[in-house]
Amino acid sequence: MILQRLKHETQSYHDQMEVIVDLPARLRSREAYCAVLVRFYGFYAPVEAALDRLDGLAHVLPDITVRRKTPLIACDLAALGLSTHDLPWCAELPALPDVAHALGCLYVLEGATLGGQLIARQLAAGPGVTSDRGGAFFHSYGKETGSMWRSFGAGLAEYATTPECEATIIGAAQQTFRALEHWLAGKG
């Protein structure tokens, strides 16, 4: 199954990103949290804009517009007194020429919602951020997180019907992890 292969073949990227980015340290203060939200906005906004321009993705994931995180991050930044105007955008994005590449990228972005549940609890305990006061991004789907993940997995499995397609999706997920890690580490 494609989800198992993705998890196995991206685990080292995921582990490396956790160490380098060190989100728990970035969630200890309001200032550090704002800085990481700015970086997430700078990655998600151009990626989601590219996904919006991609033909065929809505056929695989009919709820793709519900999955957008940029509005949540913008709302969080506004709640914390920051504007999204003139924020830097990542220029070294993962390649998104087709649906297979988009699904690999979305594996990373949608997978982040699973970890977001744990981060949301840390935010409430640390800088006092809640879902309606600067923490919508990490709460994203709330109680629907599990069902949204299963829905994504079902669409992914239905699309990935050949070894070549699976390889493209996995490569795109790895590329997305690298690009996101690079951006969050402040190197891009």
UniProtKB/TrEMBL annotation:
Q: Which Pfam families match?
A: Heme_oxygenase
Q: What is this protein called?
A: Biliverdin-producing heme oxygenase
Task: State the taxonomy lineage.
Answer: Bacteria, Bacillati, Chloroflexota, Chloroflexia, Chloroflexales
